[in-house]
Specification:
Strand order of the largest sheet: 6-5-4-3-2-1-7
Number of strands: 7
Distance between the termini: 19 Å
Order of helices and strands: EEHEEEEHHE
Radius of gyration: 15 Å
Shape: globular
Largest sheet: 7 strands, mixed
Length: 162
């Protein structure tokens, strides 16, 4: 096995389903993820978000376009004040029970079927997001959701040291 660098593209946050969503895209293509793949992934997103629980409604997603026919949507949402909730979906990857090779036909991954939270490229934002949540929401004198949403990695690569 070898590690091949991929691009990490950071997009502005959006509000979907009443939650503020920070967005990271991972792809080998310097042009980014195809618009039709992005549109299909975000169309499914409301189904993947947890119910409100009193925690400020914030999530971050990693949309990954694999080197084959696959596309993967990892959804990480803050719940219970300091817990990270995970759900995901995949498209174009028969090994994950996708119906075909179409990278726009996302299906939720079945809970318990595979308890995977991300591959090495998809995990790059996790450490940063944990630190940003602690910094702006838990350790600050007053929780500042806007500061958390503005605190994202910069676009670059998923690198060995990301």
């Amino acid at each position: 096995m070898t590690f091949a660098e991929k691009h990490l593209i950071v997009l502005p946050p959006v509000e979907i389903g009443g939650r503020h969503i920070k967005r990271y895209h991972v792809t080998a293509d310097p042009a980014g993820i195809e618009p039709e793949v992005e549109k299909a992934a975000y169309a499914l997103l409301p189904e993947l978000l947890p119910a409100p629980d009193g925690t400020p409604a914030a999530s971050f997603v990693v949309l990954h376009r694999g080197g084959d026919t696959g596309a993967y949507l990892n959804v990480y949402s803050w719940v219970w004040d300091n817990v990270l909730h995970f759900t995901g979906a995949a498209a174009g990857q028969p090994a994950l029970d996708c119906p075909d090779l179409d990278p726009t036909r996302f299906v939720p991954t079945e809970p318990g079927a595979r308890n995977w939270i991300g591959c090495v490229w998809e995990l790059a934002p996790l450490g940063h997001e944990r630190a940003a949540w602690v910094r702006h929401m838990l350790a600050a004198e007053t929780a500042d959701l806007d500061a958390y949403l503005a605190d994202a990695l910069t676009s670059g690569t998923t690198g060995v040291d990301a």
